[in-house]
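Table S2 (continued). Query chain:
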Amino acid sequence: MSKPTHTRRAALAAMFAVGMQLAVVGRARAETPPAASAPPPMDAPAPTAWSSLSAEEQKALSKYSDKWRSMPAEQQQRLVRGTRRWLAMTPDQQQKAKERFARWKDLSPEQKELARKRWHKYRELPPDQQARVRENYHRFKKITPEQRQKLRERWQNASPEERQKMLERRRQRMQRQGRPPPQ
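Corresponding output:
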């Protein structure tokens, strides 16, 4: 694979991995042709001129150069934002984004749909609950794979009543530590 093709694919992979939700919405909008007689909404974003993009941005978005003018302005702006995020990443961050995209590609359609639903549910949470989810995720990732598996098995094998007790004990521990309990 040539270097420019690899760079292009990596940029597109990162844009998808970083903005999965936006990419899905953008693709759906791009595939739906606008009504010919409908006027553009008053608050519609202005199209982005290809010539206004930096050389790096044009290189990363070169796959879209032929159809850039016919693309909806919203999609152009999403692609530009994603490209700018990609270009601002360190090589390590880019590598992690590529790995996440590779894992995403390997998911079944059902797994992808479940991930989308979980993402939407997470985004609907208030900021304090989002922070709690992130904190718990990072704590979970710090324990060994064996400990993670034991926790999963314990939770999966627990009855609804046992799960409630587990959650209550956790709330009590958090209160003793001076942290707000989960809702």
